[in-house]
Structures are given as structure tokens and as C-alpha cells.
Amino acid sequence: MNNEMKALVKAHAREGLWLQIEPVPDTGPDDVLIRINKTGICGTDIHIWNWDKWAKKTVPLPLITGHEFAGEIVELGRNVEGLKLGQRCSGEGHLIGKKSRQSRAGKFHLDPETRGIGVNEQGAFAEYLRLPAFNVVALPDEISDDIGAILDPLGNAVHTALSFDLVGEDVLITGAGPIGIMAAAVARHAGARNVVITDINQDRLDLATKVSDITPVNVTKDELADVQARLNITQGFDVGLEMSGNEIALDQMIESMVMGGRIALLGIPPCKKPIDWSRIVFKAITLKGIYGREIFETWYKMIAMLQNGLNVSNIITHHFNFGDFKHGFEAMKAGSAGKVILDWT
Ligand SMILES: [Zn+2]
């Protein structure tokens, strides 16, 4: 291996990413070096590309971006045990601290000192990624590199969908982005009776029907209440998964829930907006905020479900060579893509 690699770098404080030659990272004693095969483009990467307000205050320059990846281990730090060269893997992109109360209690996903690869630390849009061995998740043979590269967002979907018992329940998902669509597939797999997914983008709703057996509702054309009646959901939805960050969607969800309904929130609202708290109180609704994935319980469950019939492969709508990354970002920005994969092999 020579010690240079190609990488997609946020090199300048303006719109775009730049394909550059960068040094291959050094592998510390507790790290592995991963040869990247495939990466997924995330909404987060679009924020970084656009250099919006959030990106400006969060991302240090210059930074290799990207956090959704699959690859194989090509170097092991001297303290690393239980992993081997050539092992195919993905990995948790949240690098946790060891000092907080949450970490010491084993609730790694709640560690306030978490730093994200491709956001705060050097990322995975590159030929090589250094990662703490702790964060590596081995891939079984039956999980392809394409699916390996979307386990990070699938993990968000799994973490959100499995927040509440879904068996036999009627589930409403607001927002048919890739995570909403994958959460719908997880909810069906986990035994929900009906899964209804709302959006205002017909392309995304059509894509949702290609991934799993759900009921799409375009709220610009159809009344959710009519669909509910047709499906014989008499008292409202039992479980809500809010994936849009849209205030109107959340409002409609709260309106459509059963008494005592449970809502998991992954979508991020753009600003502080009041919601009608009296309805939360009078309907006795439980709200749960979702951040990231449970480390590593979500990873375990998601791989187990993929090995037992969960199929989300149709969520991948585009493949590009990493050199064509601009086309990949364009496809993402057009708003109708599912997951977009960049190939680094
Ligand atoms: Zn992501």
C-alpha cells in the first residue's frame, strides 16, 4: 500500500465537496484500517455539501466526509483482538467517550461526548478509513457491501421502529425518506397489522411500495382519515414514527393517534415551534426522541432481521463510481432518490 488515498473532502467554506489526494490514516494501537468498498450518501452529507448553518457550526475544515460504509479490514492495531485481516465489515460511526455516566452504564448511544466520523472526525468517503476496533461490526457473507453501506440509516430505522411493541398494531409513519421507508419495512417485518406512510412527494411514496407492503398516502391529494376508515383503523394509530421533521405532519400524527398512543420522533424540526401540548396530555400520548442507534443492540437486531427475511434492497436506487460523486449528490438533491451508493473499488 502506498500511503496516499483519494478522498472526498470538505476543503473550503462554500458549497461542494472536493476529490483530493490525502494521506492514508495511521492505525493506532486500538484501531483498524478499513479498505472502503461502498459508501452511502446521507442527508447529513447534503447539509455538509450545501454548507448550511448547521454544517458551518459543526464541521471543522478540512474534513473527509461520509459515515455510511462497508469495506474490509487491511490493518490491525497491536491491541486489537477478535478481528482479522480481510474481515468484511461496516461499523458504528459514533465514536464514544468512556467517561460519562451513560457510557459507564453501557448506554453508549447516550454518551454526550460522542463524535461522529464524517461530521466531527475524518470520515469514510475515502479509499481507507481508520476506525476504533470497538466500532467495527463484522458482516456475515449473506449481507452484501451495498447493504453493508446502508446499515447506518437502516439502524436509525430499526432503532425508531423497535422503540415500541408493534406486534398486531396499526402504525403511522410520517415522512417517506429512505429512513421512513426502511422503518416501514421493519414495522411490517416485526408484525405490525397496518403500516401507513404519509408524504407530499409521490415519487417517494411509490418507492415505499416497492420496498415493502405498506399503504402510501399522499396528503396533498388524500385524506388520512379516509384511508384509516378503509383499513378499519377505528380508534386511531397505536404507534407513530415521525420521520419528517415537519410540524404539519407531526400535528396530523398526534390528531390520528389512539388514546394512549406512542410516538417515536426521529425527524428534526427546523426551528422551535409550539405544538398543541393539551392534546398530548388529554390523549395520554407517550413521546420518545430517537438519536442514532443503540450500540450495539440495534446492529445485532438489524443483522439478525436481514438474515431472516427483512429485505430493504429496493431502497437503493442509484450506484455511481466515487469519481462521479457529483452525480450522486445531484440525485440525492433531486428529492426522488432512495439510497445512493458510491463504489470505491
Ligand atoms: Zn447517515
Describe this structure in words.
By secondary structure, the chain is α/β, with parallel strands linked by helices. The chain has 2 domains: 4-150 and 312-343, Medium-chain alcohol dehydrogenases, catalytic domain (Quinone Oxidoreductase, Chain A, domain 1, Alpha-Beta Complex); 157-289, NAD(P)-binding Rossmann-like Domain (Rossmann fold, 3-Layer(aba) Sandwich), CATH 3.40.50.720. 28% of the residues lie in helices and 28% in strands. It is built from 12 helices and 18 strands. The chain has helices spanning 43-50, 53-58, 101-104, 145-148, 151-161, 178-189, 202-211, 224-230, 247-256, 277-282, 297-306, 325-333, and strands spanning 4-10, 18-23, 31-41, 63-64, 68-76, 88-91, 94-95, 115-116, 128-132, 136-138, 170-174, 194-199, 215-218, 237-242, 257-265, 286-289, 316-321, 339-343. The strands form 4 sheets. Strands 3, 5, 6, 9, 10, 17 and 18 form a 7-stranded mixed beta sheet that branches. A 6-stranded parallel beta sheet has the order 13-12-11-14-15-16, with helices on both faces. Strand 15 (257-265), helix 10 (277-282) and strand 16 form a beta-alpha-beta unit. Helix 5 (151-161) packs across helix 6, helix 5 (151-161) packs across helix 11 (297-306) and helix 6 (178-189) runs parallel beside helix 7 (202-211). The longest helix is centred in the middle third of the chain and has 12 residues, at 178-189. The mean pLDDT is 96. The site of zinc ion has 6 residues, from helix 5.
Q: How many domains would you count in the coordinates?
A: 2
How big a fraction of the residues is strand? 25-35%
Bound molecules: zinc ion
Unreliable spans are: none
The CATH H-level homologous superfamily of the largest domain:
Medium-chain alcohol dehydrogenases, catalytic domain
Helix proportion = 25-40%
Quaternary assembly:
single chain
Number of strands: 18
Mean pLDDT: 96
Judging by the overall fold, what is the CATH architecture of the largest domain? Alpha-Beta Complex
Largest sheet: 7 strands, mixed
Mass-distribution shape: globular
Q: How many helical stretches?
A: 12
> Over the alpha carbons, how many angstroms does the gyration radius reach?
20 Å
The CATH topology of the largest domain is given as Quinone Oxidoreductase, Chain A, domain 1
What is the distance, rounded to the nearest whole angstrom, between the alpha carbons of the first and last residues?
15 Å
